[in-house]
User: Which sequence fits this backbone?
């Protein structure tokens, strides 16, 4: 009780200024936290590749194709169930069988020329040579091919995401370079202003630096507008809203596993197409086998089964039917030959794809080697420019050179740094593009 009373006693002793300061502190904290969370938004290339595969409108077709295949297969399997059909006909014929004059003292009335019949027919397959199972397998393979073609379309989106992501990454790195360039120029401007104040430097020296700072701000504005445009495109592509201050993480190159098989979806498509040829050939073979079915027929007509009774009667008939197409003018053999040509076409398409893919890999590897050489020269050029800029800084302070001369050296340094950033980004882009083309960049799907 004493500790509680002491606590209650302390609270009223707080002055109004202290309460005001704390209120202001919490208000600022409330305003700053959302800004910090926005500034900390990050995204990676792997995340973008995963999102485009999930959110791109084309991805919705996967479920539709699966549902369609399920319904088609269920429809095929219904052939195992008995079928019922209602049939009716009314006919008039020019002549009927008559025994007049053929049998002495015959009192048999000839059938009517107008005849009527209504029947309910039931049929049940007993043996169909495995046609239904073969048809199901063909349909399953066709569905798998459609799904794989969809996968190929989605895989092609990786190139678009890759290009957009690295364009944004390069803009982001250029913005960082401009910030560093701006901070150094501001430091030089402060030194020059001090020199102008004490009469050791002309005021025009400060003007040149201020103009250069305005150019930097102009470049920053241009980069920001370009970034906004590209972010909107990437946001639409991956189905996720990306803020202006999002930070793009620099991708990693995943080490290649020796003799790692390619995961390009095209190769699986070729295998599925060959499998479809095999299953279609099997279906054609089974179509030549005999089919046996049981049937039952009940009806009502005039005449019934008794052709000599010219009244309406009900009738019933049941039995077993055999159907065997023993001669089809080599139609089945021609269809199998056509399927074999399809197999050869698939082999040709696969060979063409591999050739074009290898040509693209050679081109990308050449670009990677080229960027490595350019980076090697960039890394030799930059230290020399840094020395030149450091000397120019000292000369500017002492009034030996003008600010324009300093800006020339300073601009050369940051152009060299910008070239290094560009070449490194292009190298990384080509490395990842190489793995995507090769079919070994599959981190995003894990």
Assistant:
């Amino acid at each position: 009780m004493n500790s509680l009373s002491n606590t209650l006693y302390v609270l009223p002793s707080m002055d109004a200024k202290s309460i005001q300061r704390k209120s202001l502190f919490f208000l600022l904290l409330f305003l700053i936290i959302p800004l910090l969370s926005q500034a900390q938004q990050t995204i990676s290339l792997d995340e973008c590749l995963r999102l485009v595969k999930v959110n791109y409108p084309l991805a919705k077709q996967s479920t539709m194709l699966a549902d369609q295949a399920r319904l088609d297969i269920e429809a095929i399997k219904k052939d195992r169930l008995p079928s019922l059909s209602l049939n009716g006909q009314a006919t008039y014929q020019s002549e009927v069988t008559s025994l007049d004059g053929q049998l002495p003292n015959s009192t048999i009335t000839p059938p009517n020329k107008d005849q009527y019949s209504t029947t309910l027919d039931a049929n049940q397959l007993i043996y169909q040579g495995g046609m239904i199972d073969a048809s199901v397998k063909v349909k399953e393979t066709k569905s798998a091919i459609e799904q794989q073609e969809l996968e190929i379309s989605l895989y092609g989106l990786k190139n678009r995401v890759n290009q957009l992501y690295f364009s944004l990454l390069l803009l982001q790195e250029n913005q960082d370079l401009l910030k560093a360039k701006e901070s150094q120029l501001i430091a030089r401007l402060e030194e020059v202003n001090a020199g102008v104040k004490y009469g050791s430097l002309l005021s025009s020296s400060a003007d040149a630096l201020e103009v250069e700072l305005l150019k930097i701000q102009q470049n920053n504005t241009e980069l920001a507008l370009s970034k906004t445009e590209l972010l909107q495109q990437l946001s639409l592509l991956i189905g996720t809203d990306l803020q202006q201050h999002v930070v793009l993480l620099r991708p990693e190159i995943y080490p290649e596993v020796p003799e790692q098989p390619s995961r390009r979806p095209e190769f699986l498509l070729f295998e599925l197409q060959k499998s479809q040829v095999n299953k279609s050939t099997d279906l054609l073979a089974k179509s030549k086998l005999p089919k046996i079915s049981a049937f039952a027929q009940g009806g009502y007509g005039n005449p019934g089964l008794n052709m000599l009774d010219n009244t309406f009667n009900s009738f019933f008939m049941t039995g077993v039917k055999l159907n065997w197409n023993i001669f089809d003018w080599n139609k089945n053999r021609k269809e199998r030959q056509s399927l074999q040509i399809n197999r050869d076409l698939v082999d040709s398409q696969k060979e063409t794809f591999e050739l074009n893919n290898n040509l693209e890999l050679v081109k990308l590897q050449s670009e990677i080697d080229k960027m490595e050489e350019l980076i090697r020269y960039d890394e030799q050029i930059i230290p020399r420019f840094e020395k030149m800029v450091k000397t120019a800084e000292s000369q500017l302070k002492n009034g030996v050179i003008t600010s324009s001369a300093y800006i020339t050296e300073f601009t050369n340094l940051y152009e060299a740094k910008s070239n290094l950033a560009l070449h490194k980004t292009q190298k990384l882009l080509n490395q990842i593009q190489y793995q995507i083309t090769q079919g070994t960049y599959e981190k995003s799907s894990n």
User: Anything to note?
Assistant: Residues 1-17 have pLDDT under 50 and may be disordered.
